[in-house]
Specification:
elongated; alpha/beta; Collagenase (Catalytic Domain); 18 strands; single chain
């Protein structure tokens, strides 16, 4: 087999659609250095799909498709296909390693990939993921014996697990903007919404079908916000020394994407935050702790939303969406009036729940670390020139596949 070691720096930003470029750069923050990903195809075998001996060509197409998915961000994608000498010409510095090949070992589970972490803001530059490329053969080899379907499926799965290593969760695939919300515990009524399963972070928990896995998916606006944060387009604040009351709430300013890393250090403590929102803003708030491995002392967070007069709007606790677990999330809340709005964050005590990424039944004293993230961009109006330009740009960037 051919030895292939190729680097693709996805920096062709001049090809971005005009409106999409505006959405990405509107916060005006400096970008991080390139996030480096190394795709290791040493164990990749295309024979079960009828493409034995054509692995090198498939690898090239898969890697090109992954690079195209991340072309709008500072992501460098390299690959190696050499089963004799894995890691040939691998980067000398820090990089995220993605191992592509084999089965997950559980014939009935059909797990197609696994990421080491949900690395919000991409603070770990040497994490890893695995893509079980042969698992699709066990699922339905007769369906994936088509070049385009197999390429799309493996490229989409690879981009998906890379997304986790850049901070993306499954619920970031939800769309369109304004069609989300917060379900009751365990509810998944709208998680497979009209756009959700066209997006890369969609998965079984959002009802992703076999045909949708094999389609040429891309990142939606909500996913783009997270990748912008991984790129450094976010304002990150340190926690204020005293913000335990509404009157001393910490103002989180700095644009459309703002975060603060903080902690609950006293049982029953509540941290207050203030935001300047405009009528018509579509606000999303996420308070997370469980989903990030970098928090060695996580909490089970909740938060309450208050209006400018101090009236309680609602409270938000466990958000049961597979990769979010006991973290608290509010999506696409429509701001009814311009003013200063407030969020009060606390930690639950007692038994801590979780999802498949985390343990069940752990006792929690409510003390530990968390991060709050807020973004409040307006949803684009349908039918505008900007959306037309996005559509034209998307057609121009449409990936081409080998026949």
């Amino acid at each position: 087999m051919d030895r292939r070691s190729v680097w693709t720096t996805t920096g062709a930003r001049a090809l971005r659609p005009p409106m999409l470029a505006l959405l990405i750069t509107v916060c005006g923050m400096a970008a991080h250095a390139d996030s480096v990903f190394w795709l290791d195809f040493a164990d990749f075998d295309a024979s079960p799909y009828g493409f034995g001996g054509q692995e090198a060509a498939l690898v090239t197409d898969i890697t090109s498709a992954v690079a195209a998915d991340y072309a709008r961000w500072s992501v460098s994608v390299g690959y190696d296909f050499d089963p004799v000498t894995p890691g040939y010409q691998a980067p000398s510095g820090s990089y995220s390693h993605v191992d592509i090949g084999g089965y997950d070992g559980n014939a009935s589970a059909h797990i197609f990939g696994m990421a080491e972490d949900i690395d919000w803001r991409n603070l770990n530059d040497s994490d890893s993921a695995v893509i079980y490329s042969s698992e699709f053969d066990a699922w339905d080899s007769s369906y994936f014996d088509d070049w385009d379907r197999l390429t799309n499926t493996l490229a989409g799965t690879t981009a998906h697990e890379m997304g986790h290593l850049l901070g993306l969760c499954h619920h970031h695939a939800f769309g369109p903007i304004g069609d989300a919300g917060v379900p009751e515990y365990g509810a998944t009524v709208w998680e497979g919404g009209s756009e959700t399963n066209q997006h890369i972070m969609a998965t079984g928990s959002t009802g992703l079908s076999k045909a949708e896995r094999a389609a040429d998916r891309d990142f939606g606006v909500r996913e783009a916000w997270v990748l912008d944060a991984a790129d450094g387009r976010i304002t990150v604040h340190a926690e204020a020394s005293d913000h335990g009351e509404r009157d001393t709430a910490q103002l989180l300013s700095g644009g459309c994407s703002v975060a603060v890393t903080a902690s609950i250090s006293v049982v029953g403590e509540t941290d207050w935050y203030a935001f300047s929102w405009q009528e018509g803003d579509r606000v999303s708030l996420e308070v997370f702790s469980q989903r990030c491995n970098r928090f060695t002392n996580p909490i089970n967070p909740y938060f309450e939303l208050y209006d400018p007069l101090g009236g309680l709007v609602d409270s938000y606790d466990d958000y049961w969406s597979y990769s979010t677990g006991t973290d608290a999330v509010l999506l696409d809340w429509l701001v009814p009036a311009t003013g200063t709005w407030y969020a009060a964050v606390g930690g639950n005590t007692g038994a801590m729940g979780g999802d498949m990424l985390y343990a069940f039944g752990e006792e929690d004293d409510g003390l530990g670390d968390y991060e709050l993230w807020m973004h409040n961009r307006l949803a684009p109006e349908p039918g505008t020139l900007g959306l037309v330009l996005v559509g034209i740009g998307a057609l121009a960037l449409k990936r081409r596949r080998r026949p």
